[in-house]
Amino acid sequence: MKRNGKIELLRFIFSIGVLCFHVQKYLATEIKPTGNVRFDFFPHGAMGVEFFFVVSGFLMASYVFNSMEREKNLSLGKSTALFMKKKFMGIFPMHCIVALPVFIATALGRNWGLSKCFDKAVDSISGFFFLQMAGFQGTYINHIEWYLSAMLIGMLLIYPLLRKYYTTFTHIIAPIFSVLALGYMAHNYGKLSGVMSWEGLCYRGTLRGVLELSLGTTCFEISRAIKAMELTKKGRLAFTAAEIALWGMCAVLVMTTVSYYYEIYTLLIIAAATTITFANIGFGSNIFNNKFIYYLGKLSLPIYLSQLILIELVPSYLGHLNVPIQMIITIAGTLIISVGLLHLTDYVTSLKSKKA
């Protein structure tokens, strides 16, 4: 698909939301150099992960829909392998580059000795290859990468079904499964958040991934139907207003201290808003289709992967500063580090391409 500028901008915004949530979680609630300090700063910023899952499911369905004719002579197994290789290699180079600085920052921040570093390195092997959400034991240092593990596992489960039974999956299986899984979450936990709770066959984070990837595939079909509609100016205006209202509601729910129960409704709002945004029928949509916005979208992955570097280092070496200053330094520093990581990864991958 042609890149959607609004989606790229939203990737960046949601990655900042996740960063702010983790800064609040690990700095404002655990570091109290000025007393019993408590900040409510993007209290539901972790919902950015839900956006990433839904978008990934949408793009997976788009890939299958647009490649069915092109890959009609490929076996199901080979098509799945090619798709998974593409997804894996899209994140693995940067994942490798970020892994060492995150590990070093964690070791320095927690004052580990060589023996502890060795134990933690061995303990992180399964996580390094994105297997932690499959149930493998271990404590992966860059633990926020659980999202990537759950995404890859979910895609490996969904892609063959999607390619083999595209219409049945997007129209029937995905929506039914999404409703049942959401009902299970609401009944048992009253919220979506939670990662490492074991659900019998998988972690809750993996269930979230499969649920939201599936929901994203249905969003693609709805978006495709909307895009095919012959809309009048009033119709486009109505969709534009709905899109703005839905993202506005999402922002309020993410940035305020509402009950965790509203996470379930926030997911549905994100799915509806993403569907309209991808349809690209609202007024002013083309304003966002430019190189700068695309660049911000590319920054979302390094922001997500590298945030623990300063979250670990700042409280250890700048703990004498008050908490808000530590938070500002962590957020601003992570953005700077992310720019460097993005260009370093691009440079390394370009060298590899030249050798090939």
Characterization of this structure:
By secondary structure, this protein is an all-alpha fold. It has one domain. The chain is 72% helix and 0% strand. It contains 12 helices and no strands. Helix 2 packs across helix 10, helix 3 packs parallel to helix 11 and helix 11 packs across helix 12. The longest helix is centred in the first third of the chain and has 34 residues. About 3% of the residues have low confidence.
Brief summary:
The chain is mainly α and 356 residues long. The protein contains 12 helices and no strands.
Provide the fold topology.
Layout: H1 5-28, H2 48-67, H3 76-109, H4 114-123, H5 125-128, H6 146-164, H7 166-188, H8 204-227, H9 233-255, H10 263-279, H11 291-317, H12 323-355
Structural key phrases:
mainly alpha; 356 residues; 12 helices; 0% strand; globular
Uncertain stretches of 5 or more adjacent residues: 30-39
Give me the secondary-structure category.
Answer: mainly alpha
Question: Major sheet: size, sense and barrel closure?
Answer: none
Q: What is the count of helical runs?
A: 12
Task: Label the overall shape.
Answer: globular
Question: What is the N-to-C succession of helices and strands?
Answer: HHHHHHHHHHHH
CA radius of gyration is 21 Å
pLDDT averaged residue by residue: 90
Give the end-to-end Cα distance, rounded to a whole number of Å: 26 Å
Q: What proportion of the residues form beta strands (DSSP E)?
A: under 5%
Domains, number: 1
